Amino acid sequence: MDPTTFEVQSLFYHNAYAGCVALAQKHAPNGIVDDASLLQLVYAARAALAMNDVPGARQLLGEDAEHPVAMSVLLLADLKEMKSLDDDAGMADVLEQMTTLLDVVEPGELSSEIVRCNVGLALYESGDKEKALHTLQVTGQGGSTELECVALGVHILLSMHRVDLAEAEYLAARQVSDDSLLVQYMEAWIGLVRGGRATQQAYYVYDEMSQNTTIAHTAHQVPALVGKAVAQAAQAHPSEATATLNDAVQLDAAFPLVGANQAVLAALSAPTSSADAEALARQHAQAQPASELAQLWDTKRHELEEALAAMA
User: Fold this and answer.
1) 247, 307, 260, 249: which is closest to 286 by C-alpha?
2) Domain annotation covers residue 155
3) Tally of domains in the chain
4) pLDDT digits over 132-141, tens only?
5) What range does the domain containing 164 cover?
6) Per the domain annotation, does 286 fall within a domain?
7) pLDDT digits (tens, 9 = 90+) for 11-26
8) Could you please report the per-residue DSSP string of 74-141?
């Protein structure tokens, strides 16, 4: 992998999505011309989708992209649109098209790994966690060497409260490449979910990541700083976590998860002022209407209102 593609990939893995897009556009301004620019724009388009920028993802790859890895990203964009329209038939059709791409890519290549990961992500976002894990070949047995697939699989397993299986996959992945960014992040995720002493190791991971020369002292550092702050809060160090989030604000005050975690810390630091924490969370949700936090806020508020009505 050439240095530029590696840097674009690293920014994507660090969740520095805006930086990933900007770097890919800088080095591949004329679209897909070779394998290197293809991968750069694929990672950039995936980053755009992670920011809910469907038109941006399409523009990066072009609507007529024919390579399977590019097609898998464009179909993932289609799926997001179908989901927003509650078009179940359209979603099923897109999922079928994505699945067929697995038959036309060469196993063992990075493009094949990305296609499989995108198909797994599509299934997960469609609500089929079990089929997503089967497609990713991540079932707690540690058999996959495709680290992007393993990382997504670990995320899914943690969402299913199967920390034991997630840890088994992480340990197997560590044997494949213990210095991979994805493997290190897996360790941090599991540590935060396990809690207790494991949060200390999660802190070490995020602290080291935040000092990575690729992202240090730039807005790209903010996701790692947020992770570091979460680990500090999990260790009952709210003042240190607040200081870390303040550092993040100085670099990118608009990053969605900064405000969300500031609300959590407000509640942790001053339990008697939960109304202030709720107000901060609401303010953040209104400022980020398309964010997952805002959607979760609205869902939970609606569920609470229904529960109260049922009890009245």
Assistant:
1) 260
2) yes
3) 1
4) 999 999 988 8
5) 138-194
6) no
7) 999 999 999 999 999 9
8) HHHHHHHHHHHTT-HHHHHHHHHHHHHHTTSS-TTSHHHHHHHHHHHHHHHHTT-HHHHHHHHT-SSS
